[in-house]
Amino acid sequence: MPRLLMDRFGRMHDYLRISVTDRCNLRCVYCMPEEGMEFEPDERLLTFDEIAEVVRIVAGLGVRKLRLTGGEPLVRKQLEQLVARLSAIPGIEDIALTTNGIYFAGKAEKLRAAGLTRVNISLDSLRADRFALITRGGDIRRVLESIEAAYRVGLAPIKLNVVLMKGINDDEIDDFLQMTRERAVQVRFIEYMPIGHQDEGWKSKYVPLSAVLERCAARGWSAEPTEAVYGNGPAQSYRIAGAAGSFGLIHPVSDHFCQTCNRLRLTADGNIKPCLYWSDEFNVRPLLGDDAAVEALFFRALGMKPESHEMAQALVNAAMSHTPTERRMSQIGG
Length: 334
Hints:
GO terms for molecular function: 4 iron, 4 sulfur cluster binding; cyclic pyranopterin monophosphate synthase activity; GTP 3',8'-cyclase activity; GTP binding; metal ion binding; S-adenosyl-L-methionine binding. The chain has helices spanning 48-59, 79-87, 104-114, 128-135, 140-153, 173-182, 200-205, 210-219, 291-303, 312-315, 329-332, and strands at 15-19, 65-69, 94-99, 118-122, 158-164, 185-191, 223-225, 236-240, 246-250, 263-266, 271-273, 282-283. It is α/β, with parallel strands linked by helices and 334 residues long. It has one domain (15-331): TIM Barrel (Alpha-Beta Barrel). The chain has a twelve-stranded mixed β-sheet with strand order 7-8-9-6-5-4-3-2-1-10-11-12, with helices on one face. A hairpin with an 8-residue loop joins strand 11 (271-273) and strand 12 (282-283). Helix 1 (48-59) packs parallel to helix 2 (79-87) and helix 3 (104-114) runs parallel beside helix 5 (140-153).
């Protein structure tokens, strides 16, 4: 019987998030600064061969679900080739992609044919001018085309990620909720997290997701908890009465979901991250070629995973039990 990736708190880890690049074609305000980012040279990124080797090994330890992230994963050329290789690994049952949607429409059919099963598309505003400001130059028309392409090729359920920010897009909550009433999507409202920046700028933009349920009540919409959408991870799911779709609340700051965490992360430069928020990382690249050593490193990383990420402490400048990461979200893979 193979060992499975269970940590000291009894949490089973069957989900690996894989960043394939730290580069992105956008500069979203919550993810990276407009200028000054230093990206990894290509030779420091894991190759497709190396990623496939890691996945083959962890599939033997019970990993069943994968998510490809970035940066923007579709700036990595021929990503469909990696998807095809990963989908062929015994034990892998689900491969999802998180994308900003700029390039996805042109790749949707190839990715689906290669074995992609689901997609999350970032859409932080429904207003073209505001979307361009948040993303620092993104064209919302291309994202909307990608959503339609995901429908067309059968990548369901379609999830739309909305990072909620005070004074920036929190006045669009009603519009996103209305979208779920009309279309079979899940809009996932995500709290703004202090990843790589715990400054006062983050705090001034933070919005607890209780605001979403408050808007439902204000509009007279009855929103009831509903069965989680497949692959929904930490989101608490709700459906407005009579709605075609649903919405999810992902609130790592106001109400963390660490007790059910089932995920590990592999950064584009080959580091295993047991927790998104803390700085602990374990580089797997030098060990590739030795399956036993790679397995041992995953168990070592898992042994360092704390019970909680303590992000809420950043809101009140309280002491923390570990050191928060200095890496930006784009460098980790989210």
